[in-house]
Amino acid sequence: MTVTTAPSRSARHQHSRPRPVSRRRMPGLKTSVIAAAAYLIAFLFLFPYVVMLLTSLRPQDSLRDATIFPSEWEWSNLANFWTSGLAGNLMVTLKVAAGSTILVLLVALPAAYYSARHNFRGRTAFLILVLITQMFQPTAMLVGIYREFFQFGLVDSIWSLILVNGGFNLAFAVWILNAYFSSIPRELEEAAFIDGNGRFGTLFRITLPLAMPGVITALIFTFIAAWNEFVVALTLTTTPANQPLTVALNSFIGQYQVDWQNLFAGSVIATIPVIILFALIERKVVGGLTAGSIK
Amino acid sequence: MRRLRAFEPLAWTGPAVLLIAVVVLWPVIEMIRSSFLKISRFGIVQGSNGLANYEKLFDEKDFADIMVRSVIWVIAVVGFTVLISLALAQLFNQRFPGRRITRWALIAPWAASVLMTAIIFKWMLDPEVGVINQIRLKLGLIDALGGHSADQLGDASTAMPWLVFVAVFVSVPFTTYALLAGLATIPADVYEAATMDGASKLRTYWSITLPLLRPALTVAALINVMNVFNSFPIIWAMTHGQPGYSTATSTILMFVLKGSDIGESAAMSVVNFGMVLVLTAIFLKVSRWNKEVA
Q: pLDDT digit string (tens) for B15-33?
């Protein structure tokens, strides 16, 4: 049995999911029970985020009322967030996430393309290096990261966060892009080359557009990972204004301040967009995360 | 011309290698080096410290407890995650109206920041106003809000299960999706043959589905082991490892030590890292094993 991570194959598998024959013959009660169980579970997994949304819409003075629904719906909470100090932290998050994504694409695209198309000395070593780094987590080497950037004089700088987030998300991008480039027939490129497109013309007019789903997956995945990152930022940033939203929100907990609703407005703004973005690439992410191992 | 050719691979893959070297490999070396150095609070290296950092770490009164707790934490979280995900994968693999939407709902904890999810759970467990405590009050599990029995995170015996719960909650979506992808690769005719042979549902699952699911299961479980071992935000946001060190794992201890003694914190990281390396080695071995089978 082979399991490939090539996108076309996995997409086809999604549609031709095997079902035991007997199940098709009996809808009715059994399907209803299954559906009910699935809806209940779906609700449970959404529940915390619904609570978050409901809390963010509470009026400030009834935030700590022991009720499930707010007495009034205070939609202005979400608007007020933008004038609170946390809006600056959201900008830091945005810059870090965008910077890391650009860095990853700039570095991963050529590496993934070349290693998919050419057999060169050190290719296996390169791919193993990438696979190993996918297993590494910044938390495990936090002290080393801190010491290194301390020596660089980059503590409390946005550049250190961009570098670290870029470095730790590179592996996923290289793997998924490598799989996409490998699945594009070489003949297509050769034909375009013969038509006089030149090496880079072929790359930009034929190969890249065909690999676009992979590029978008890598892009969204890196963006979300950097957007959600907490531990490295907690370690490397000291000035409140330089902290991304995750770190800033974390410092809210335990403080019994009056503007708790900003915490929840902030978490809504930090959470809902990434859930939607993630839904767009969900099918391709599993392949990328388990790439190299199932392949 | 020939010489230039030799440098071609370097031009294409060099930046990636450089980034990995600077961001991933250098910190590992720096971490190991620091674990043998005496470093002041302000980051000034005051010379070699031999093995003193390690000795100090192993002499910490809570060290043994924390390491044992870390291992139990990993086993409990990954164990529950795998069992629940196996069931959910089976459920979401059935055909029913609205399957796409329910699967989509499952994504939320995976996409959202783990820190945010932990913060929300802390809020839901708030002794005075938390939703979970409101529900427990209605169910008659507690007498009143705000009391000691409502403060689930204030005591290790009730806090640990909740920490495990939240960790399982955020790990299940990825694991379920990985298993669903695994289920999708099992050809339908295998099941048809089993039905014709008169095998029961349970028997079919045990003898056909599970063995064929094994590669996906192994990979998902190992990725979880590494994630959970390095998990930090859940415990940090919900209990800070307190009271005392009673809910701390090795990563929490490492972070706390970083504030007082960087050398000792580095020693903790090296110990932690050693365990992660062992796991990575197992992972690579398993992946090669998969290739042979394929």
A: 999 999 999 999 999 999 9
Is A2 in Cβ contact with B177 (below 8 Å)? no
Q: What residues in A contact B233, CB-CB < 8 Å?
A: 230-231
* Average model confidence (pLDDT) across chain B: 85
B84-B89-B92 Cα angle (round to 5):
120
Closest Cβ opposite residue B27 in set A132, A141, A170: A141
Residue A288 at interface with chain B, using a CB cutoff of 8 Å? no
- pLDDT given for residue A15 in this prediction: 46
- Tell me which chain B residues have a C-beta less than 8 angstroms from the C-beta of A166: 19, 23
Q: What is the rounded CA–CA span in Å between residue B258 and residue B35?
A: 12
Measured between alpha carbons, how far is A175 from A37 in angstroms, rounded to an integer? 36
User: Where do we find the tokens 């996918």?
Assistant: A134
Those residues of chain A that have pLDDT short of 70 are 1-27, 254-259, 287-295
What is the predicted pLDDT for the residue at B287?
55
Cβ-Cβ contacts under 8 Å, B265 against chain A: 143
Is residue A15 within 8 angstroms of chain B, CB to CB? no
Domains along chain A?
85-247+266-289 (1.10.3720.10)
pLDDT 10s digits, A126-140: 888 888 888 788 888
Q: What residues pair up with B45 in beta bridges, in sequence order?
A: B39
pLDDT number for residue A288: 67
Q: Mean pLDDT across the stretch B163-177?
A: 93
Query: Choosing among A100, A178, A293, which should be mutated to test the B contact, i.e. which has the most B CBs within 10 A?
Result: A293
Q: Which helix (H) or strand (E) holds B37?
A: strand B37-39
The average pLDDT across B221-228 equals 86
pLDDT of residue A3: 39
pLDDT (tens digit per residue) in B101-160: 888 888 889 888 899 999 899 988 888 888 888 888 888 888 777 777 778 888 888 899
Structure tokens at A252: 């809210």
Q: Can you count the helices (H) and strands (E) in chain B?
A: 14, 2
Share of chain B above pLDDT 70, in %: 94
**What value, to the nearest 5°, has the Cα angle with vertex B237 and ends B123 and A230?**
125
Angle between helices A158-183 and A7-15 (to 10 degrees): 80
CA distances from A81 to A77, A253, B169 (A): 6, 17, 28
Q: Which residue segments constitute the domains of chain B, with CATH numbers given?
A: 63-247 (1.10.3720.10)
Query: Of A35, A253, A282, which is closest to B97 when you measure between CB atoms?
Result: A35
pLDDT at B286: 64
pLDDT of B190 strictly over 60? yes
